[in-house]
Fold each of these.
Amino acid sequence: MNFLIIGDVVGRSGRNALQNNLKKIQKKFSIDFTIINGENSAGGYGITGKIYEDIISWGANAVTLGNHAWKKEEIITYMQDNPDHNIIRPLNFTEDSPGQGYKIFTHSNGERILVSQVHGKSFIDLPLSNPFEAIDTKLLSIINDHQIDYSFLEVHAEVTSEKNGIAQNYDGKFTAIYGTHVHIPTMDARVLDKGTCFQTDIGMTGDYNSVIGMKKENAIKRMRSESNIPRLEPAEGEATISGAIICSNKGQKSTIRSIQIGGVLDRNLLS
Ligand SMILES: [Fe+2]
Ligand SMILES: [Fe+2]
């Protein structure tokens, strides 16, 4: 099975790139299942029901979130009105949080795929339970009890060491563990000792001629003045779709390959 994972889609530029290129990428690399992080897809902050449905219609099977999950509050009502949705938010949000931290999908070939997400705690100003404890108590038994064939753990976190710590701790337990949130891809995609595919961060799907997807002029003004004005807005140039392709088949060693398609980071992978 070939899996495509795509990092944080930022604003209209990121959405346009998906709409124009996702099907081509899926065809070129014979993708069977696609997971896309949509936490920044609506104006850079959060996601709406309409945008979620667009991302699914362009080819995603599952949409993950992160610290910006509820910035557009209407997504909470959308999830309640559409209980079969394929939106996954961090598993270690507080117990009373809406939504789900994992979901099991059954592919048309009958194989079962678990998609899950946890949030790192370092430098994150959110009420979160311990991600290790959440994985230990809520995920590992699911993988065993539900005969999961392929399992994906997205670690949405600020700090590279935390992502590496979680990945090394659960090496061999998941098909792939990968980071999002930083919006810059790391070049360490590899298979860990016990067979889990890993990349510290798969980057964003947005305009990299920016400051992590936001218009650079505004971001620089804020940094220089040490204030939170002006408002940050998504950059509007051509987006790079950044993510990874994971090939995994029972009884064989898995592989992972980082991809960047379009925009200023394009690596000419579609031609
Ligand atoms: Fe993000
Ligand atoms: Fe984030």
Amino acid sequence: MVELREHLTSQLSQRLFLVHPPEPPPELLLAEPSDGIYIGKTRWLNVPVFWDYTKLINSHIAIVGITGAGKSYLVKTFLTRAAIIWESNAIILDWTGEYNKWVRQAGGKVVSLGKESLNLLDLAGLKVAERTKQIMSSFEILLDLHNFPEERYDIEEGLEKTYAKEKTPTLSTLVEVLEKNKKKHAARLLRRFLVEGSDFFARTSTLEMEKLAESGLVCIDLHSLPTEEMRSLAGLTILQFLKERMRKEELKEQKGIRLFVVVDEAWKIANDERSDVITIVREGRKYNFSIIVASQNPTDMHKTIISNVGTMFILRLVLREYKDYIRNSLNYSHYIDEAISAFGVGDAAVNMIFSSRSEKAHTFLLDKIDGEEPLFVYSIKVGNMNVEKEREEFSRMLYELGLTDEQINLVKVEFERGDGVLEASTFVSLLERFGYAHSSIMTFLRQLGIEEKFIVEVFSLTRRRRAAKGVVDLKLRDEEEGA
Ligand SMILES: Nc1ncnc2c1ncn2[C@@H]1O[C@H](COP(=O)(O)OP(=O)(O)OP(=O)(O)O)[C@@H](O)[C@H]1O
Ligand SMILES: [Mg+2]
């Protein structure tokens, strides 16, 4: 590494005569591969950039850029490498459901909040007063309680009574208490969280918050919740639990970040001053975890986040309003501002605030985030169900089934033709053509995870199709024979 650094420095001094915007000194960007996460190379001097949080004022990250600019790709690359070098855990609060597939492919866990429940009144090791304060702050953000001071008071008082009444109460208990005390308006504000199909926060928790922070890669799919309000309440609550948990944890002198928490497109909780997203960023290094906030719309991100995060990635932005919003906080050159509108996918301006005393904030250009090849997924369509398998894994399964390389390629061609999707019946026809018996095809379909009732369906469909095709085949043969 020392040699590399020396080599680069000598190369750099030769190139410094060229005119270009200043880049941070290489010693701030380079790191041992096990100390930092590799991201890409600087545009002018081609210096490899390693994200080494020990050189930064804090480990929090913000990412902005128009749709398709590469925000999620950057997050995925980051989490993948962090898991490799530090065995970092990650929790993605997935607002739009876009991480779902990737997390499953990467061997992580997807928690669908629509199917789970999270008792809002869980204490999770906190004192009643502390938890009450947190719950009140969520309600303030979501129910505009500052406009209803009376109801605010009633709910707070109701919470105290509820906790005094029961050891493990739920929201239903709270609403009962409010109704009993004739606090009609307050009860009505909360009743929306009790409606059947929307009562995720009113039932006993099925989600084990204690385990979440150390379960490798976890995607919490908030997309499956019915409203933006519900998604925000879930996001806020999970952040509250995590924050308290990480606060209690001793700061161990160990390498790397233990946990990344990703909030992507969480506008409601990223621009409210009372939200824990802001508190976590503001408190900087206090916790041994790092928050990554991403958004298409920079104005959805509170200014505190933009000016306090140790690292900010600005991917392609076009709207003047959005660009000015960022530039007013970060103060980079006109040159960089212009470059941001001309970015291709993955190009970025990076703002880092270094902690060494002589260094301040630097914004520099990165030529394309050097990411991980995305996994390619094949999807086998059966009725209205899709069974997904990563391409290489699928090929391996076919190989084990006994297909030759040539045959595997034929299957691949069929998938690529359908943009990664293939009807199960077509797949079965292919296997039949290769000489496989029904019984072994059935076993294979089961191995893929296709449900029994669909397997029968697939075979009848294949048979019908073959019957129709048979006519054509016969005709062809007749013609050939005749010729
Ligand atoms: N650095 C990169 N190198 C190669 N391909 C990239 C890079 N960044 C993004 N891509 C590709 O560009 C596409 C869009 O990227 P991505 O999904 O990350 O965009 P996004 O900013 O998250 O968009 P949205 O706001 O709609 O969620 C993806 O197919 C991704 O694989
Ligand atoms: Mg995205």
